[in-house]
Amino acid sequence: MHKHAVLHPLALALLAAAAAPALADDIVVGHLAAYTGPTSDVGRPYGQGVADALNYLNQKGGINGRRIAFQTVDYGYNAPQAIATYKKWMSADAKPVAVQGWGTADTEALAQFAATDKVFFMSASYSGHLTDPQGKSQYVKAPAPYNFFYGPSYTDGCRGVVQWAAEDWKRKGGKGAPKFVHMGDNHPYPNAPKEGCAAYAKELGFEVLNPIVYSLKPGDFKAQCLSLKESGAHYAYLANTSGSNISLLQSCRTVGVDTQFLSNVWGWDEYAEAAAAGAGRSIVWVVGAAGWKDDVPGMAVVREVSKVSDAAGSEVRPLHYMRAVCGVFLMRDAMLAADRMAGGITGTNIKAAMEQFRDHRPEELGDVCLKSTWTAEDHRGTNQVLVYQSTDKGFEKIYTATLERRPDWLGW
Amino acid sequence: MSGGHTTMRCGEFRTSYRADTTIFPTPMSRRVALGAVVLAASFPLWLNAYYLNLLIQIGYYGIAALGLNILVGFTGQISLGHAAFFGFGAFCSAWLNNRFGLPVVLAVPLAGLLTTAVGMFVGIPAGRLKGLYLAIATLASQFILEDFFARAEWFTGGSAGALAQPFTLFGFAFNNDQRFFYVVLVAVIVMYLAGANLLRSRDGRAYVAVRDHYLSAEIMGINLTKYRILAFGSASFYAGVGGALYGHYLGFVSAEGFTILLSIQFLGMIIIGGLGSVMGSLLGTAFMVLLPEVMEASAQGLGGVIPGLKDSVAYLKQMAIGLAIILFLIFEPQGLAHRWKLTKAYWKLYPFSY
Fold it and tell me: What is the C-alpha to C-alpha distance for residues A264 and A268, in angstroms, rounded to an integer?
């Protein structure tokens, strides 16, 4: 009996660490976040956005009165850690019906697990490989039927900025074929758009150079900048996150590179702009939702959401925060729709509800989010790419690319 | 305490060489070991998945740690690349299964053998190098293999990693913690018995001779180069099998999992457990696996009392491991195995211990 008495509180403490104390009526959601590790620069604001939005929805009565019980786990951008966490969730009594995930390596690895377990999976990875629910594409290893994300895929985002670059080249009166280069770490996230985007750049008349590798962990990248300078590239696409990009741009400024830098949705934000001290001026990148200072309908709600973790309302949230809120509200909408279906809120019903959305966006968020459409064959939520540039006057929207939904681009 | 006069003996008397080299020194220790196995076999019936997961981790890391202990503790070599071999086994088993459809039950030992081959190749410098120089040579193999994992698309799936199918036997899938626990339990028993046996063999004694005084060993006719390379091979076999079990348990293998940090953790396991002790390898692994969990649980518990503690759990875990290694080096350089021996001796002589 003594042993039991000693074990019991310990077991409770460990269980508390293992799973959120979910009540029978709760909707269980897992939240994988990267508050540490090489992508923590953008992982923190995004993860905070997810947590704030879920807490906000709970304050407003949850899903038809049912609370969303979620547990945030910082997996440090270590894919095996994410898999282990997911398996831990799935072996608990209250299994999650949905997961708000993070990175590309872990989301792509978990896609098959989610399909087997029928768990709705919304990721912060916008990898093109996740857009093919039926595995028709020759570029995906396996279908990802339960995977969704909010915004254009990495490859579509890259295609968007490449489209801008092609017009920019013409406008500037450039002669001959402009040179394009992909730069990023050898990791699933920077690799995701590499081939698809290079193929499109070729279509548009670019000469595509050999990719240059630089680490996701910030460092001294002068060697890479010298290679870039030597290659004579006119446009360089930075596929890493902002932390790594800041050091690259600073190294390149030192070396004296005059390439036009392009980047993806995680590649630049307000924090990076401040930290780079001007080194990032003129960078062109993808933005997936309204900015904190934009005065569009719906931002008032985002500011309310932000107050969940910042009661004073003084914090200025970077771009990623708004996309996180959009993603959670979309999941909420799908859950509400699933609640009206036979069987209620299950992973399968949430997926089915998502696939019925046509030009949908969460109502109270107004113009903050892009309109999204998912179908049972095509999980490319949006084909609109908002292209922004960092200028002396701040961030400016300079271009909107509306890409075709080409069937050969599905899953690529 | 049932065995009548066997417990009445006033000392350990061995009258034959055979008796001196049994795996279990006393009948009692054999009974305790058997009892422990029976107890372990009952765990899935009454422990939840969380505890089983920790035990499974102790199992596959423990197998790999024993391999490193054979290399470091018994043969006196050093390796900073053990995690890379652990990873090679994981990728190799997944590859054999995915690419050639080899059943997992065969892929695991075969992966161990292929890892042995790689380990012996990498161990070749050990024939020439000693101490710090050898450490750096093995460090190089760690980085070479890590880079290979991230680039060899055909073998590892490149940076995206590879999926590994669950362990199946006659159509029965060991696809949850309750079931996989038995796979790991059997593997641990087999590998630990094999390890204990190896050290009673001619080769095992040669390992120890190489460690204790390489010059004397050579004069006695032990081929130093052969045994040093063989030690790397044995260590890699254990690492490969441990890694393969890890891969099939997790269902996914990624290059990120096998960094230098894991190599250092393996070293930490055997230092904490006790260099040159088979039992210590398992004790040290258990300590290293459980320490972060206990840290997290206590941080959660104290989170209400000390604000901000919960947020720093990630750092605390890493720091605790470092601190544990330092404390063990200072206060218990012979590891948990030694502490366990002292405890046993204390109770054996109780209440008349000196």
Answer: 8
